[in-house]
Structure formats: C-alpha cells, structure tokens
Specification:
alpha+beta; Rossmann fold; RNA-binding; BirA Bifunctional Protein, domain 2; 8-stranded mixed β-sheet; about 40% helix; 5-stranded mixed β-sheet
RNA sequence: GCUGUGGUGGUGUAGCGGUUAGCACGAUAGGUUGUGGUCCUGUCAGCCCGGGUUCAAGUCCCGGCCACGGCCCCA
C-alpha cells in the first residue's frame, strides 16, 4: 500500500460536497461584490516568491529544477501569482480590477490539524485603486463571506501598519542602529502580544535617547490598542495622543481620518460581525503591507485560529506597475474555515436534486438506455444499475445509494408500454407511459410531492 | 526546530508476553425465479514499517513513518 505524502489529504465524496458548496458559496458572495475568478499555474518561477518574500522563503517551498535547469517551485500562496498575471496580461483592462481566486498552495512545513503541506486558499485582490472606500469594500466582502459560512463565533481585528510604523519611528526607534530593523522587530513583538519583550527592547536601549515623554506615549498607545484593557475609542485615543510639529501632526491626523472613514464605511456596507476589534498592534509580520491590515479569527480552532487575513499592500512595483499600488486584498484559509464549520456543525449545502435509480431487468438495454440518457439531458440525477442481478438485490442497492425514486423496467413493461416508478421514502408507486416526457413528468411530481 | 500522546480488518473498537487476534458496522453472495429498509446464513478483510529482547511480541525496548496536541514559525 502506497501512502499519501505527509501533509496531504484525500477528499471523499461527502467531504467534497461540503468543499464544493463552500467554494460556490464564496464565489457567489464575491460575484455580488463584482469579483470574478481567475486562475494561475500551480508552479511558478522561484524568483516570483523570493522577490516578494525574500530569499529565505526557499526553505519552506517545494522548489525544484526542471530539465532545462530552471528554478521553479510549487506556489506557496496566490497573491504574487495574481499580481504577476495582472502585470503580464491585464494591463489593458479597466481598473480597478476585482479578482478572486481559489486553489491549492504548498508549503514545506510541519503539518498538523488546520495546517497542511498542501492547502487551499480562497482570496480576492482589488487592484488599481486605493483609499478608505476600497479598504472598506474589501473588509465588507470578507465579513459577508464569513457570514455566508454560517459560522457564529468569529472575530474581526483591524489595524493599520502605517499608524504603528509612524509611532515607532517618531519615537526614534529607527535611530538605534543602522544594521538592525528595530521598527520591524518592535512590530513583530507587538503583533505577537509579547509586551514584555517589547518593553525589554526599550530597556536595553534606554541609552539611545528615548525621552520619558515618548516612553509614556508608547505605553499609552499600546494600552490603547485593544490588547490591554482599554477605555474609549482607540482611534480617538491615537488621534489625541501626540503633539508635534504641525506638518507631522497633519499627516498623522489624515491617516487616522482615513482609517476612521474605512471603519465607518465597513459598518455601512456589511453586517456587524460577532466581534470587532480595532487594534494598532496588528502588523501581520509582512513587509509589503503599507496601510490597513485585518485578520479574522475563529477562537474555537485553538492554535491555528486565523482563518482570513489581508490588507493594503504594495507589490505591483515588483512588476513595474507602481502606479497600481497600493492594492488591497485578503486570503481565506479554506481548510480552516471548513474545520471551523465542522466544529460548529454548520453547513452551506444547498438542497440536492432528487436522485433516481434505473433498474433494467434482463436484456432491455436497447429500450432503457435512451431513457436514461434523456433523463440526464433533462438534468435528473440518474443512477443506472449496471450489474445483472436479482431485483431484490438491486432494490437493496438503490436503497443503499440513497436515491429517492426507483424505476424498474423489464420485458413486461416494454411490452405493455407502462412502467412503475416508486418513491422509496413512503413506498408510493406511480404509473407512467414508457416515453421520456411522461416519465419526466411523473418523476417531477413524485419528487415535489414527496 | 523543540516537545507530548497515539497508531489492531474499509470504519469504530476488544485484547497489553503464549488467543484459531474477539465484537459491531461495512462490502459481497445466498434465503427459489419482478419490488428496498428488518431478519438469518456464508464469504471478504487487520495487528503502520524496520531492527532488538525473549523459548514465545499487536502486547516490552530502540529507530523510522503517519496522525493528533503544545511551543517556535507562518511570505
């Protein structure tokens, strides 16, 4: 027996039905917001991802060389490929572009529940426009998608890396050294919620001329960010927090005004999520985010609770299209959403059309097969008994398949031109002429009146 | 990368040094020839892999693989 590679999964019929239903559900929400699906290759040139995320990502990639010694890799994410495609072949399209995508991605890392080496991501990108309305549209779409899953227990956290970065830079953190990325370190620590690590960083560098005033402001700011018990409106708190020269203050207030406008517009565009936090310590650990960032969490998932994340970013400049920056988008962890739906026992299965089993007795295929084909043409779900076995067995099979109706056709029926169609749920049997139209009508009646 | 737990037919499980490795569900064939779900009978099918200890190993030990969990990480 050959085993499945580690971190991969098979999806059986039942599981696939759930997955398809979710995919379609998400598609339908995306469509309502003006988004359309695109698809990119499952492998790409390696440098697409090293350009985006740095050379060290190779360690987590399924990278390989092809026969011409080209460096390729299975895609670890979908944003960069979509950006690449836009720069490649969608330059003439009217902007902004609203694109959605779905597919598997690959990362070479330890697999566990909610974290696989082959995983599925659904995402959207809004390209070629920016501002509070764009961001609000994107967040609103994310909220509606989560709502469409039927999940009850989830949290939206919205932050702004521009705000965070500006505060840290104003505090003079970037003056501490030239080789080290103190701002980045500080952001990561805050993002992790490692406040003691954050403050240790200050203690260690106390000689670096950070004024007591700034220390107090930072303490205040972190406190206002939602992770620590806070009072009042975090945006308002941030707005009034700093004094400074007029020019800097204006920029600061403009950013916060825009951010506030985004939040307001989200409230107008989308239903209120179960829980919403404004939190300026979110940084998502990615360098290319430049403005608003957000994450959706499902607490019941435990350690791997983030199911959706995104924000405003600059990547198009990597493809010589800087005028399209910043863009805004998010990725949704398809597998994790499914896990959460399983946990909460919700489902977006739409009602299946009734299924019909057709059981030919003896050799009547010449007469039966055209009817089977005809019924399928009309959209019925038809299971044909392909084995030559006794009627009793065939009935058991039909029952086991879970079909709604059974149609038995033998020589007797061919001769009389009259057949019986039985509804398994209650045993009710209806007569029909042996012609497609008549059968179609009887079947429809039986299914609807069931 | 570190660490914890576990792996018995397709599924769920019992057995914890010597058993024909038990049970249930399942699949399949019958219970006499054109009507299912119940019932009865037969059949199919299992100790994750490799070493070691022992007269004897699903059962104990070591390694690997896989799964699940806790840290780390998560472009």
């Amino acid at each position: 027996m050959v085993e499945r590679p580690r971190g991969t999964r098979d999806f059986g019929v039942k599981e696939m039905a759930e997955r398809l239903a979710l995919e379609r559900g998400l598609d339908s929400v995306a469509n309502c917001h003006g988004y359309n699906r695109v698809q990119t290759p499952i492998f790409e040139r390696l440098d697409l991802f090293t350009a985006k995320s740095g050379p060290e990502v190779v360690n987590q990639l399924y990278a390989f060389k092809d026969r011409s010694n080209r460096d390729l890799t299975l895609r670890p994410e979908l944003t960069a490929p979509v950006m690449r495609m836009v720069a490649d072949s969608m330059r003439a399209n009217a902007k902004p572009l609203r694109l959605s995508y779905f597919g598997q991605c690959f990362r070479y890392e330890e697999s566990k529940k909610g974290r696989y080496r082959e995983f599925y991501q659904y995402g959207i990108e809004h390209i070629g426009a920016s501002g509070p309305l764009v961001e609000a549209e994107v967040i609103a779409l994310a909220i509606r998608m989560m709502q469409a899953t039927g999940l009850q227990d989830w949290t939206v956290r919205i932050g702004h890396v521009g705000v965070l970065r500006r505060i840290l830079e104003q505090a003079g953190i970037d003056d501490w050294g030239d080789s080290e990325d103190f701002v980045g370190d500080a952001m990561r620590l805050l993002d992790k919620g490692d406040y003691s690590g954050f403050w240790d960083m200050f203690q260690d560098n106390i000689a670096m001329d950070i004024s007591d005033d700034w220390m107090d402001l930072l303490a205040n700011f972190v406190g206002a960010s939602g992770k620590i018990q806070r009072e009042g409106d975090p945006i308002e708190t941030a707005r009034e927090m700093f004094q400074g020269d007029a020019e800097w203050l204006k920029i600061w207030r403009d950013i916060l005004d825009d951010f506030e406008a985004t939040i307001r517009a989200v409230g107008a565009l989308a239903p209120t999520p179960p829980k919403l936090e404004i939190d300026f310590t979110i940084s998502r650990g990615l360098d290319y985010y430049t403005g608003m960032v957000f994450e959706f969490h499902v607490p019941s998932l435990g350690g791997e609770s983030q199911v959706l994340g995104g924000g405003s970013y600059r990547l198009m400049h990597l493809f010589d299209q800087p005028d399209l920056d910043p863009c805004c988008g998010f990725g949704l962890g398809f597998d994790r959403v499914l896990l959460a739906m399983e946990n909460e026992n919700v489902s977006i299965q739409k009602q299946e059309r009734g299924q019909i089993a057709v059981i030919p007795l003896k050799d009547v295929h010449a007469q039966v097969l055209p009817i089977v084909g005809g019924l399928r043409d009309k959209g019925h779900k038809v299971h044909l008994e392909v084995r030559d076995r006794g009627l009793k067995r065939a009935m058991r099979w039909a029952n086991g398949m879970g079909v709604d109706l059974v149609m038995i056709i033998g020589e007797r029926d061919i001769e009389s031109g009259n057949i019986e169609i039985k509804r398994l749920a209650d045993g009710f049997t209806a007569q029909s002429n042996l012609d497609l139209e008549s059968i179609d009508e009887v079947i429809s009646n039986l299914l609807h009146l069931g």
